[in-house]
């Protein structure tokens, strides 16, 4: 009986942990919303910090949470901030596993780099920008020209797949998306393609071409008819695909003339898009066929963001301009701006926000974090800093009733008690 009781406890713990897992970029549904409660509103270098773990190299990927593991990527050996440039031959990518409870390093898996790589990457984005994805059994990593990798939960590499060899001055950034037996990769930089790989073998299942100037992570969307579509924003268009086969269902003009970085969000079959360098926003109904610009585009707006993604909450869109320090709220149904407010000493926003417990967490590159009320009336609840002079490009994660912030040097765990 004692053994059976132990097995029951372990089983219940595992089910509970999996229910709270954060398994891909922007969480289980890819939209940056957590159901966790009790997250901290204020913190500093000495307040509400549970633990702080130094990482084995910089990176801009966000952490994911799988069972008792925190998983992220980093790199070392070449073009590390505040170090000599070094030799490209020494460039190493790493998949890093920390213990979920206390942040202690459990293992590091070194991933081989296919050279030559981009000699320099603008704004210090580096060579480990794509967030991992996991199905609870395997870990899937995307390192641009070096390929897509599957690892087991102990860090053993199971397979590698090539998705193209082109490079770009901004580097690569889109993260893997899992659908049924597929790993779906936006390889716009590497081959101007959207590629689906078999999760078990890495074999290519389908490829959709013409994915131009696109750095955003694709999103799986339920249509009004209950079917699933895969949507992605490219230069000038949003595209909708059948995720199992790669068949292109529809396209919609965005009126946004340049590259697209922010990921999409969705509710009730409508997809919402903001971007890009030229500004702009729109909403489009999924489920169409062909060019749906005239038939399914719901509204078009002028305000956007070039980097960070939006949030969608209770009928309103929220986002931050990447350079102006302005936060926006708009009606999701109409696109009408509800507020447009400048934050004090904001700096640049590259990280996408996370929403939890009625609060929106917006994190700047210099580590200043703004906590806003998730409501259509502007209310700045707090402004926080950790006193860390490193760069914060990764998106925050809310899990286990805690907030996790990743810089290019550390992973921080924050909560209201500041204790383990």
Descriptive notes:
By secondary structure, this protein is mostly beta strands. Among the domains are: 36-56 and 341-420, Thrombin, subunit H (Beta Barrel), CATH 2.40.10.480; 61-172 and 174-180, Lipocalin, CATH 2.40.128.630. Helices cover 6% and strands 39% of the residues. The chain contains three helices and 33 strands. The strands form eight sheets. It has a five-stranded mixed beta sheet. It has a four-stranded antiparallel beta sheet with strand order 1-33-32-31, with no helix packed on it. The protein has a four-stranded antiparallel beta sheet with strand order 2-3-4-5, with no helix packed on it. The chain is globular and about 50 Å long. The two termini are 32 Å apart. The model is unreliable at 1-19 (pLDDT under 50).
In a nutshell, what does this entry contain?
The protein is mainly beta and 420 residues long. Among the domains are: 36-56 and 341-420, Thrombin, subunit H; 61-172 and 174-180, Lipocalin.
List the SSEs and their pairings.
Layout: H1 2-19, E1 49-54, E2 64-66, E3 69-76, E4 92-99, E5 105-111, E6 133-134, E7 138-142, E8 148-152, E9 157-161, E10 177-179, E11 182-187, H2 188-191, E12 193-198, E13 204-209, E14 219-222, E15 228-234, E16 237-241, E17 248-253, E18 265-267, E19 270-274, E20 281-285, E21 290-291, H3 293-296, E22 297-301, E23 311-313, E24 316-320, E25 326-331, E26 337-342, E27 354-356, E28 359-363, E29 369-373, E30 380-384, E31 397-399, E32 402-406, E33 410-414
Parallel strand pairs: 17-21
Antiparallel strand pairs: 1-33, 2-3, 3-4, 4-5, 6-7, 7-8, 8-9, 10-11, 11-12, 12-13, 14-15, 15-16, 16-17, 18-19, 19-20, 20-22, 23-24, 24-25, 25-26, 27-28, 28-29, 29-30, 31-32, 32-33
């Amino acid at each position: 009986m004692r053994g059976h009781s132990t097995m029951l406890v372990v089983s219940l713990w595992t089910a509970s942990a999996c229910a709270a897992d954060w398994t891909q970029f922007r969480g289980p549904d890819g939209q940056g919303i957590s159901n966790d409660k009790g997250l901290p509103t204020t913190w500093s270098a000495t307040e509400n910090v549970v633990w702080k773990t130094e990482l084995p190299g910089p990176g801009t990927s966000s952490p994911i949470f799988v069972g008792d593991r925190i998983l992220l990527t980093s790199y070392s050996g070449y073009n590390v901030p505040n170090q000599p440039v070094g030799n490209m031959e020494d460039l190493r990518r790493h998949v890093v596993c920390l213990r979920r409870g206390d942040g202690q390093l459990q293992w590091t898996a070194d991933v081989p780099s296919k050279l030559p790589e981009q000699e320099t990457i603008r704004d210090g984005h580096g060579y480990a920008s794509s967030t991992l994805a996991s199905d609870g059994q395997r870990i899937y990593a995307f390192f641009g020209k070096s390929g897509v990798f599957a690892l087991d939960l102990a860090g053993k590499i199971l397979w590698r797949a090539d998705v193209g060899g082109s490079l770009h001055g901004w580097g690569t950034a889109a993260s893997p998306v899992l659908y049924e037996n597929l790993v779906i990769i936006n390889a716009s930089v590497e081959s101007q393609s959207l590629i689906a790989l078999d999760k078990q073998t890495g074999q290519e299942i389908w490829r959709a071409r013409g994915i131009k100037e696109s750095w955003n992570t694709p999103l799986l969307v339920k249509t009004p008819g209950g079917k699933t579509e895969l949507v992605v924003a490219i230069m000038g268009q949003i595209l909708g695909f059948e995720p199992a086969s790669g068949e292109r269902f529809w396209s919609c003009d965005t009126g946004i003339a340049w590259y697209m970085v922010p990921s999409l969000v969705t509710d009730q079959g409508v997809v919402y898009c903001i971007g890009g360098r030229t500004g702009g926003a729109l909403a489009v109904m999924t489920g169409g066929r062909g060019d749906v610009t005239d038939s399914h585009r719901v509204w078009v707006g002028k305000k956007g963001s070039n980097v960070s993604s939006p949030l969608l909450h209770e009928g309103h869109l929220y986002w931050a301009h990447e350079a102006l320090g302005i936060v926006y709220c708009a009606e999701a149904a109409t696109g009408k701006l509800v507020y447009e407010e400048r934050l004090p000493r904001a700096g640049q926003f590259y990280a996408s926000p996370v929403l939890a417990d009625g609060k929106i967490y917006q994190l700047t590159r210099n580590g200043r974090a703004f906590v806003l009320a998730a409501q259509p009336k502007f209310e700045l609840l707090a402004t926080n800093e950790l006193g860390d002079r490193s760069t914060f490009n990764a998106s925050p994660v809310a899990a286990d009733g805690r907030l996790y912030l990743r810089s290019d040097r550390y992973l921080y765990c924050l909560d209201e008690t500041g204790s383990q």
